[in-house]
Amino acid sequence: MKHRKDTAEANARLRTALEGARQYRRRRHLPALLALWPSQLDDFSAKGTREIIHRLKAALLAERRRGRARHWCYNLNRHMALVSALEGERNHLARLSQKQTDETTDATSGEPVI
């Protein structure tokens, strides 16, 4: 029975993180999670997004370490926010990559990009 309960809790946390990723807005949510310059927040290029993803991964790793160590400053809400932000940034990078692929495909076929 315990295994089923753990799986249900993990699924609930995953659903919460995915819902958070859908509602994620960089300019609103990211300043509370990472120390960034305004120019970094406004850089929606692939390179800027990769840099933010890298920093989010490092912050998430540090938060997970605090959680596993049962450190007093571990914050489950921050952990969930980091997971949601990371997923949101990954989705943004995937859309950028897809857009770039679509533009390349249309350019090689000679069709105008609209």
What does this protein look like?
- The protein is globular and about 45 Å long.
- The chain is an all-alpha fold.
- The termini are far apart.
- Helix 1 packs across helix 5 and helix 4 packs antiparallel against helix 5 (76-109).
- The chain has helices spanning 2-23, 26-29, 38-41, 46-68, 76-109.
- The model is unreliable at 110-114 (pLDDT under 50).
- It has five helices and no strands.
- The chain has one domain (2-99).
What are the salient characteristics of this protein?
114 residues, mainly alpha, 5 helices, globular
Explain the layout of strands and helices:
Blueprint: H1 2-23, H2 26-29, H3 38-41, H4 46-68, H5 76-109
Give the N-to-C terminal Cα separation.
55 Å
- Please report the total strand number as a whole number: 0
Number of helices: 5
Average of per-residue pLDDT values: 85
Largest sheet: none
In sequence order, what are the helices and strands, one letter per element?
HHHHH
Oligomer: single chain
- Spans with pLDDT under 50 lasting ≥5 residues? 110-114
Which descriptor suits the 3D outline?
Answer: globular
Give a brief outline of the structure:
By secondary structure, this protein is an all-alpha fold. It contains five helices and no strands.
